[in-house]
Amino acid sequence: MNLPQRLAWLCLLSLPIACSSNKAKGEMTDEQKVGLYYERALRYYEMRELDRCQDQVQRGLKIEPKNERLMLMLGRCHQTRGKLEDILIAEKIFREHPAKKDYRVHLCLGGCLERKGSYYMEASEKVASGERFTEAADPNVRADELAAQAKASWKEALTSYQAALDRFPGSFEALNGLMRTNVLLEQFDESFAWSERLLQSIGESNEVFQKRLKELEARGSATVDIEKALLANSDLQVQALLLRSDILHQKGQFREALAELDKAVVLDPSLAEIYARRGQVLSQLGEYQRSNDSVEQFLSLSTDPFESPNIRRAFALIESNKQAMKTAVR
Question: What's the whole-model pTM score?
Answer without folding.
Answer: 0.85
